[in-house]
Write a structure and sequence with these properties.
It is a single chain. The protein has 6 helices and 31 strands. It is mostly beta strands. The protein has a domain of about 120 residues: Cupredoxins -  blue copper proteins (Immunoglobulin-like), CATH 2.60.40. The strands form 6 sheets. It has a 6-stranded mixed β-sheet with strand order 11-10-13-18-15-16, with no helix packed on it. It binds CU-O-CU linkage and copper (II) ion (2 copies). The site of one copper (II) ion has 4 residues, from strand 6.
């Protein structure tokens, strides 16, 4: 057991006692015996697609609980328009996206367009809006003409219920198309999520302990399927839009036997794609990936990741869902490449000049701040409970924690004194990484979710341009967000 998991387990023991919990381990063990086995090996499906035309996309999203196909079973889960993932929304820079969200759940919800650079005010990307059960809300998002292309996603953001609603299946992909198309033979959307179903196909309720750890589901799904399969011919170039929609699970991804090139992470694109072998997606991160196909069978795998919390706990939850250190990792999807070699598409064009966001490494910095992420035993009152805070405070929708001058560039040092990793997310305004792991990246790196490792720190710069208004930043382990690890920001 690593030192940091030992540290955390010490804290959790205290928390479990304080909560009077009979123990996560018992409930997990008794549940798992009656679970139906996931159906693997089905043909990979794609969520339906809705594409803008003439600068507009108008969609209706019905959020409802009901029968949803998950892991090849009829589950009782939640979805948009009857499916999980919901439809993929394909937009262009400069578009207006109108969403009529109909809440057919028996609980409040709302909608967030994660990563989009749009206004957080009014009926824009406003997470303070509450859409009650039975109500309808009209959102309108106006993308600037120079909006970065890339992979984004939508999900509920009603504080206190975010993790439960995403775990139950409420999420979908958003693609902002490139200014000039990238020639590829096939494009696929791969939304990776996790959840746990009981013997009756219901999404399980998780314990307070699992919330504190950040829940990890027993089922790892791609587009709602368990290890689906798909085929290609050798010599092709595919483009995979990968989203980590897991509530808390980090995904170190590999696809051995194929050549991978990273076109971008979160928002925007690199000038030229760069070769990668392993790709770490924290919860909320996305990857825009090119796959040059070579004959053979390759499995997209999620390897073990020690986020400082799970090593000791995972072993108690049964081998089926556990990804063990040193093991091959969980199979997410299987690619079979066979047949005659296909003509390879021409290489992707470099991003047209002027489409790069300004490099903030040389920008004038108007203010420097520290943002302290905290969790763990002793952080809350009484010293025994786990507290989940940013700058020592739990989220309150009425309080504004950070005020920023519109148009300015700030440098934020994100610190994490706790024994577990926390992925930090800022809405609306993307962050440029200035220092990570004690090093400055050698090219511009943009993120809207950046992992702040246990006992670690990360430095970012943010240009608070184009939009003013009130929004949030938070831990994207969404259980932690629901527990209070979120702050409100106002740009004015
Ligand atoms: Cu993906 Cu504030 O969220
Ligand atoms: Cu977001
Ligand atoms: Cu966290």
């Amino acid at each position: 057991m690593s030192r940091r998991s030992a540290l955390l387990l010490g804290g959790l023991g205290a928390a479990a006692t304080a909560a009077g919990s009979a123990g996560l381990w018992w409930s997990a063990a008794s549940r798992s015996s009656s679970r139906p086995a996931p159906v693997t090996g089905a043909e990979l499906s794609q969520p339906s697609e809705l594409r803008s035309a003439g600068g507009r996309l108008e969609v209706r999203l019905d959020a409802a609980a009901g029968r949803i196909q998950l892991a090849g079973q009829q589950a009782r889960a939640m979805g948009y328009n009857g499916g999980s993932p919901g439809p993929t929304l394909r937009l262009r820079p400069g578009d207006v996206l109108s969403v009529r969200l109909a809440n057919n759940l028996d609980q409040p919800t709302n909608l967030h367009v994660h990563g989009l650079h749009v206004s957080p005010e009014g009926s824009g990307d406003n997470v303070f809006v509450v859409v009650n059960a039975g109500a309808v809300h009209d959102y309108e998002y106006r993308l600037p003409a120079d909006h970065p292309p890339g992979v984004y996603w939508y999900h509920p953001h009603h504080h206190g219920m975010v993790a439960d609603q995403i775990f139950a299946g409420l999420f979908g992909a958003i693609i902002v198309e490139d200014p000039e198309p990238v020639p590829v033979s096939t494009e696929r959307v791969l939304v990776i999520s996790d959840t746990t179903l009981d013997g009756g196909g219901n999404v399980v309720r998780v314990s307070q302990m699992e919330r504190m750890l950040g829940r990890e589901g027993e089922l790892l799904l791609v587009n709602g399927q368990s290890n689906p399969e798909f085929t290609a011919m050798p010599g092709q170039r595919e483009r995979w839009r990968i989203i980590n929609a897991c509530v808390a699970r980090y995904l170190p991804l590999r696809l051995d036997g194929q050549q991978l090139q990273l076109l971008g992470i979160d928002s925007g694109r690199y000038r030229t794609p760069s070769p990668v072998e392993e790709l770490l997606l924290a919860p909320g991160n996305r990857a825009d990936l090119l796959v040059a196909t070579a004959a053979g069978e390759s499995v997209l795998r999620a390897a073990y990741y020690d986020r400082g919390s799970m090593a000791g706990m995972m072993g108690q939850r049964g081998p089926r869902q556990a990804i063990q250190p040193g093991a091959a990792g969980a199979a997410l999807a299987t690619l079979r490449v066979a047949g005659s070699t296909a003509p390879s598409p021409t290489p992707p064009p470099p991003l047209p000049a002027g489409r790069d966001p300004d490099d903030l490494r040389t920008a004038a910095v108007a203010a420097r701040r520290q943002v302290a992420l905290s969790s763990g035993a002793g952080m809350g009152m009484g010293g025994g409970m786990m507290g989940f805070t940013i700058d020592g405070r739990e989220f309150s929708p009425a309080r504004t924690d950070t005020v920023v001058a519109a148009g300015s560039v700030e440098e934020w040092t994100l610190t994490n004194a706790s024994p577990m990793d926390h992925p930090f997310h800022l809405h609306v305004w993307p962050m440029q990484v200035i220092e990570e792991g004690g090093r400055a990246p050698d090219r511009p790196e943009w993120r809207d979710v950046i992992n702040v490792p246990a006992q670690g720190r990360v430095k970012v710069r943010v240009a608070f341009r184009d939009f003013s208004g009130r929004s949030v930043y938070h831990c994207h382990i969404l259980d932690h967000e629901d527990l209070g690890m979120m702050g409100a920001i106002e740009v004015r």
